[in-house]
Structure formats: structure tokens, C-alpha cells
Write a structure and sequence with these properties.
The complex is a heterodimer of chains A (about 110) and B (about 110). Chain A is mostly beta strands and about 110 residues long. Helix content of chain A is about 0%, strand content about 55%. Chain A is globular, with a radius of gyration of 13 Å. The N and C termini of chain A lie far apart (about 40 Å). Chain B is about 0% helix and about 50% strand. In chain B, the strands form 2 sheets. In chain B, strands 2, 4, 5, 6, 9, 10 and 11 form a 7-stranded mixed beta sheet that branches. In chain B, strands 1-3-8-7 form a 4-stranded antiparallel beta sheet, with no helix packed on it. The relative contact order of chain B is 0.34. Classes of the chains: A mainly beta (about 110), B mainly beta (about 110). At the A-B interface, strand 4, strand 5, strand 9 and strand 10 of A face strand 5 and strand 10 of B.
Chain lengths: ~110, ~110
């Protein structure tokens, strides 16, 4: 089945850029998502990209997609302490009936 | 519309008891999902409804689990004869159409003692 892998931890200083990486196995995934989860809170959609795009920018967020390598990344510019959270990469399954999530990357931002 | 709501937010139950959770999706959304999230893991897909039809079930959904969406609106997830391994956060999400945002509820945290 579909597998989504992420590095578990990332630590950056306030004001730096953060890059969170994700790899997936199913090349038929049509939508690829980034979710944010703060402690005790639900999942918040940050952004998503359609598989026929290779880049999407939304304010401080930039998503890059390399379909050939099945690699997705999320760049957060000017990272703030409020960006500290767990970030999940998710892709649609082959049937388009579910999102398959990675284990999440814990982003820690120090001032 | 206040988004996806789940009830209860927390549930503590003794091993062997049955529990039922409820999810109220966003009213115009016809797609509804249940996920389970354990500590340190990402959400794991359990099942998917389109309107009242349950179209997909994960192999994680053992015979002790059953989900319904009788009128294509709210959904319930029942776990029979709970086990300690069932302790997790159970998340519900709804979606209007493929490719649009799937909105998640706050989840129901189940603790089996």
C-alpha cells in the first residue's frame, strides 16, 4: 500500500527558513497536502498541491513537488515561534477515497 | 456552520465495555472519514462514507469496529469489547469533493483502562 515518510524532528532559530521533507510511494496520488497540528488541537490544513503542479506559494509557505522522485517539501520563510507544531504530509490513495499520512515532523523554533 | 464536531471529546472506559462516538460533519459535505491517531503517529485511515454508503474500510477496522452514517449526515463509530490497544484519538473529517479541503474535527480521545 501507499507509504509516506517524513523526518521526525527539525529545529530552527526564529527568523530562519524551515524546510520539511516528505517522500511517498504511490505515483498516482493526485493531491498532496500539508497539515499542522498544535498540542491538544485538531489538524489544520496549511496548503495543498495538485500533482500536475511543481510549485505553489502562499504567503510564507512554499510547496515544491518533484513527481519523478516522489518528493514533496514545505518551506516556511521567516519561521516564528508560533510555527512550532507537528507538520504532516498527506497524499490521496490510488482510489481517491482516503488521505494517507506520514508520521509527522515536529518543528521546534527557538528564539 | 461551526465545522466538524465530535462528541464526546474524551472517553474513559473499562476494558471489555462498548463505546460509541459521534461525528457531525459540515452540512453540505457528502464525504466523511474516520481516522485513528496514536501517540507519535500520523492519522491512520479507518473508513470512508460517501453520503450514507460506506465505500471503503481499512484492514485496521476489525470486527469489533462498526461505523454508520444512516441518513448521510452524522456518523457514529462503535467499538465493541474495547481493548487497551484501542486507546487513541479518533478523528472525523468531512469533505465536499475530491481535491477540496478535508476539514477535521477536534477528535475523541479514548482511554481504555
Amino acid at each position: 500500500g501507499e507509504d509516506v515518510e517524513q523526518s521526525l524532528f527539525l529545529s530552527v532559530r526564529e527568523g530562519d527558513s524551515s524546510v520539511i521533507n516528505c517522500t511517498y510511494t504511490d505515483s498516482s496520488s493526485t493531491y498532496l497536502y500539508w497539515y499542522k497540528q498544535e498540542p491538544g488541537a485538531g489538524l489544520q490544513l496549511l496548503t495543498y498541491i495538485f500533482s500536475n503542479m511543481d510549485m505553489k506559494q502562499d504567503q510564507r509557505l512554499t510547496v515544491l513537488l518533484n513527481k519523478k522522485d516522489k518528493h514533496l517539501s514545505l518551506r516556511i520563510a521567516d519561521t516564528q515561534t508560533g510555527d512550532s507544531a507537528i507538520y504532516f504530509c498527506a497524499v490521496t490513495n490510488q482510489a481517491g477515497t482516503a488521505l494517507i499520512f506520514g508520521k509527522g515532523t515536529t518543528l521546534s523554533v527557538s528564539s | 456552520d461551526t465545522g466538524v464536531s465530535q462528541d464526546p471529546r474524551h472517553k474513559i472506559t473499562k476494558r471489555g465495555q462498548n463505546v460509541t462516538f459521534r461525528c457531525d460533519p459540515i452540512s453540505e459535505h457528502n464525504r466523511l472519514y474516520w481516522y485513528r491517531q496514536t501517540l507519535g503517529q500520523g492519522p491512520e485511515f479507518l473508513t470512508y462514507f460517501q453520503n450514507e454508503a460506506q465505500l471503503e474500510k481499512s484492514r485496521l477496522l476489525s470486527d469489533r469496529f462498526s461505523a454508520e452514517r444512516p441518513k448521510g449526515s452524522f456518523s457514529t463509530l462503535e467499538i465493541q469489547r474495547t481493548e487497551q490497544g484501542d486507546s487513541a484519538m479518533y478523528l472525523c473529517a468531512s469533505q465536499g469533493a475530491v481535491g477540496t479541503e478535508a476539514f477535521f474535527g477536534q477528535g475523541t480521545r479514548l482511554t481504555v483502562v
